[in-house]
User: Fold these one by one.
Assistant:
Number 1:
Amino acid sequence: MRVLVAGAGPAGLAFAAQSAAAGARVTVVEREQEGTLPAWTASVQTRTLDALGLGGLGAFHGHRGIRVGERAWTVPGVAERRVVSGGRLVGALRDRCARAGVTFRWDTGFEDLPEGIERTVDLVVGADGARSAVRARWADTFAPRITHGSRHRLLVRVAGTLAPQALVGLRDTPVVAWAQGDAAVVEVGDRAYQANLARRSPIELAGRVALALDGLLDAPVVSATPMGRTATVMCRQAGQGNVLLVGDAACATWDAEGRGADRALRDGVGLAGVLTQLQHVRGTMNAWRVLAGERHRERHSAGQEALRWAESLGTAADHHDVAAVAAMLDQRWPTRQAATHAA
Ligand SMILES: Cc1cc2nc3c(=O)[nH]c(=O)nc-3n(C[C@H](O)[C@H](O)[C@H](O)COP(=O)(O)OP(=O)(O)OC[C@H]3O[C@@H](n4cnc5c(N)ncnc54)[C@H](O)[C@@H]3O)c2cc1C
């Protein structure tokens, strides 16, 4: 079976490695050059890495944590996770692909391939991320829908290391932030953003964010970059003919939710499993449409729910409504009282 994969990210590589090892002839086209590795770090479920035989990768960091103002809790009942650098993860998957005989075409965007390329292979897998060119080529079929939230996001870099995945409600300038390594994604309500942060020079912006986060990020702010508004993307369907989408190309949720890499890997492994089991493109397309449809609906509603929840939490923090913030935490994590009080 000949398979063309667009995108050498976690989804495309996990799929390519597993399906090539099971006998498929896989070619991956990647827009970037061979030496380029991603700069992000992600927290990925230990069981996802285990499924790929990469359980030893990254550092164990236990469970997701939440911090509000000066208080922090670890959240019980949430899957065990490891922090991995995107570079190490993608590097390990590329090695796996090379051993399984996957062919790479670097420096080649899917948009560079001729119209009708799908007729020259048995299956096309669009794994080219949130701005997918595969999705764009078949936009009528996939019909992506983007839902914007009302909060603005900034990527903040600090000189130091931040506690992983802290969700922060500030006292004076209301933000919700998600931190890891030397980066934090800070979210600000539209009103506060327009009043304090919009149309600032990079230096002014970093200064204002540093002031707002004073004492809360445990490290000095080096830079702050606007990332646009929170958003989720969902497609009407996962595949058509012999073309399908996986990972962020199929369903990208608000990135501060911090599950994209995990889901991308599970998509890749899941699709390779279906293909290997069925050994038949039409059967795989049918099975994937059902499987992915369910997953995407669940992801989208979870993403939307998380978005609404974070926005309400931000609004409560905007109004310094400590009781409302506490009630929201209790509602989302009823076992919070039993959680470890970390600070
Ligand atoms: C700062 C930051 C922090 C994050 N933290 C976390 C986290 O803690 N936990 C988590 O689970 N997720 C996290 N994510 C999200 C995670 O990185 C993504 O959800 C995940 O990488 C998606 O994998 P993917 O393979 O679907 O797409 P991508 O990783 O986007 O990979 C797509 C690949 O396709 C290539 N490509 C793009 N366009 C084309 C084209 N036209 N033709 C050919 N190739 C193309 C790209 O170069 C890339 O190599 C974070 C993201 C960011 C930006």
Number 2:
Amino acid sequence: MGSSGAALGPQAGGPSAQGRQAGGTPRAALADLLAGNRRFVSGQPVHGHDVTAAAAASGDQQPYAVVLGCIDSRVPLEAIFDQTFGAICVIRTGGHVLDRAVCGSIEYVVGQLGVPLVMVLGHERCGAVGAAVDALRGGERPGGSLAYLVDEIAPAVIEAGLDDPAVHPLAIRRHVRRTVRTLRDDDLLAGPVAAGLVAVVGGLYDLATGEVTLLEPA
Ligand SMILES: [Zn+2]
């Protein structure tokens, strides 16, 4: 799968009819999602202005993708993919860390709503990954439930190499890939993924440009 997604479908412009439906193909869904990001990056969103109660209330829910991202306030997922109400399901946790509630939510969206695409979206300068780096370097595990986030991100930091000066950006990428792998192996997702009915992909959001780049599997 290419890093730009350019070969996957429509370029900038409106969403394709094919991707915007439950039960569509993962390929068409990914093309639509990336086309939305290109509209956002180009400063020509078609849904960016459409934040009205009328828009929210119109039509049924027919999402075609679910995006799992970070809580970071600079990465609002509907906006960066230029999506309107009812188009994508969004889950956000610190460092897009998985737990049973997150996995159950994705299983519901895929299994019950027929959504063919799951995207895990990391981002540069992620504070949650930074907290894991700091905790491992300092040998001090945070208290409370923050410890859970750090523990879940720590394997990616260790893989990246704690002594590497670029450990933070490297760990961000590894953590996305690890999250993708975990979801591909999920009890209820593995079958549809193996059959090609559902795709789980990883992406990275550039805070400076607004661009989403797909991450190749490790
Ligand atoms: Zn983050």
Number 3:
Amino acid sequence: MKKYPMESIRNFALVGANGSGKTSIAEAMLFNAGVTNRLGKVEEGNTVMDFDKDEIEKKMSISLSVANLEWNKIKHNIVDTPGYSDFKGDLISSLRAVETALITINPVSGIEVMTEQAIKYADSIKCCKAIIINKIDKENAKFNEIIEELSNICEQVVVPVLIPIGLGDKFSGVMNSIIKKAYKGGKEINIPEELQQDVDNWHEKVVEAAAESDDSLMEKYFDQGSLSESEINFGLKKSIIQCNAIPVFCCSATQNIGVKETMNLINHFFPSPKDISEILVTKNGEAESINLGNYDKKLGYVVKSLSEPNFGEIAIVRMYANSLTTGDEIEITEKRAKDKIGQIYYICGRSREETTEISAGDIGGLVKLRNATTSLSITEKGEAIIVKPISFPEPVYWKTIKALSQADEDKIGAALSKITDEDPTINFGMNTETNENIVSGQGEIQIGIVQKRLKNRYNVATKLTEPKIPYKETITGKADAKYRHKKQSGGHGQYGEVYIKISPRELGTGFEFVNSIVGGAIPSKFIPAVEKGIVETMKNGILANYPVVDICVELYDGTFHEVDSSELSFKLAAHHALKDGFMRANPILLEPIHKIQIVVPTENMGDVMGDISSRRGKILGMSQEDNKQVINAEMPLSELYSYHTSLKSLTQGKGYFTQKFAYYQKLPNDLAQKVIEESKRGK
Ligand SMILES: Nc1nc2c(ncn2[C@@H]2O[C@H](COP(=O)(O)OP(=O)(O)O)[C@@H](O)[C@H]2O)c(=O)[nH]1
Ligand SMILES: [Mg+2]
């Protein structure tokens, strides 16, 4: 397999909304480069990138995949990503592995949620951007309107460099605004008269963007009103690399119009790994930037790890500095764990080609590594560097997961830990308060796929149910209580008596035990048993079997018996005294409240606000951002569990939210009554 120097590599990720044609564009590129000899179709399930069984069945990408091709001596590493917000973990991960985000737009639906999120994530890690407006052959496709919309939402200057000749069924070719030339069927043609003005206008824009990248170009542009072709090329590329300009292309992936011209422009204008030598890292926990040119250790990043029985275990890796070779010893920074490099491959969809190294700047696959899982960094021992760190979003969707057959219950943990290794946005763990296994993530589709994979890969059938709420119990009043535990059964008896005062503490401050016994009313050796009796009773709950929190128990008196008193007797006395006193001290249930931030299109505001209040939510503030509203609110967890589904349906999929636990608060009496009754029934 051929090795490419850094300057001959272009790494880019196809990102953007579902159905905008990312997989189809990759397919057309691979076909044009001769990697495939026919143009696969997503609907027919024969594309290079959507090779997974679930992807073929659903006719959409659900996991990122990579492919490579050579175009005019330049190697393109293409990362195709899923466009559903449920899989935004893959979007985030892919952008950390490439120099350029190629954001795909469907010109009929315009700027969608995932388009904006892709732009935002790319900006947050200073990933260069380019945009491709696909599906120009579709009825009602727009171009100029999309450019205008993009100019409004992007911080950078948006410069159309490939402009469509005709829209919808009249789409027949493209024009290059840099060199002012038109192409149809791969051949140069004259620019159609009616489009001459457009090309001239866009050309002006390109020249301005190029001039702005460099002082000397700017001067020349002011003096002479124009720049030479090589100056434009130099300036525009610099602007793109500095994240000051976003070039826009257009195409029809399925008709393969504009794709070759796009590939030419990728060669010319996308940065090579050599062009971006400064990258952000954290080293020993501190944020810093390093210059890869001077960095003499191995540095890489695991874009995605896959463990599919039919496909094997493979980690897709982007090398940033130096090359990885078979036999190398590496360290996975986040786990501080060692691994040894075995076989190395270049990956193209489902197929692989064996090689001996992944050189700096390139992307390849490593097999049988134990620790190299999605989003982790590869370093040398003791380096402790994390590449382009970014946090993955908190879950917005939760389910309790249970094996259908009790025998499989033990298998769930190991199988899920493999599945969650592939996607850091999926979480799995036991909620020790409710004793349930909870799987959580970014949405229904993602968790549905998890369930499917458990069945297909590990043969574990499961059921998903709504998780229980981890309520807690506390009191709002004070009470005095005493209890004498006395038992005489033949020989040795049991005896212990305690007097306690219980009072509420501020929420969140925990439990306090005060021993104010004086004069040996209870011998000190039995005091720990009293506290233990209290703590155990609190753990199991009194009102409705939820743990008791934030109370103070003062042990102030008691009696004992020389022979019959024992630790057990005092534990039992404490248990009964607490139960009795607690019920007389105005017990209440507490429920978890989460802070949420919701982003919705302005036209859905009314419905969304109504829904928040019907979910006992509280609005904390609102602000307008472009054509959207950002709502800060609080919502009880019991209502949050179903919120993802509801918000999606209220906003036709356009609304989204993030959330975080905030605090516990009193559950209203009517609801508390229901919970108490349910708990009694469950007993
Ligand atoms: N008419 C037309 N359809 C397209 C084009 N590109 C993709 N499609 C279709 O749009 C659908 C979604 O495409 P896909 O590549 O899966 O989009 P992705 O979700 O962004 O990967 C598929 O049915 C494609 O055949 C295009 O340029 N023109
Ligand atoms: Mg796709």
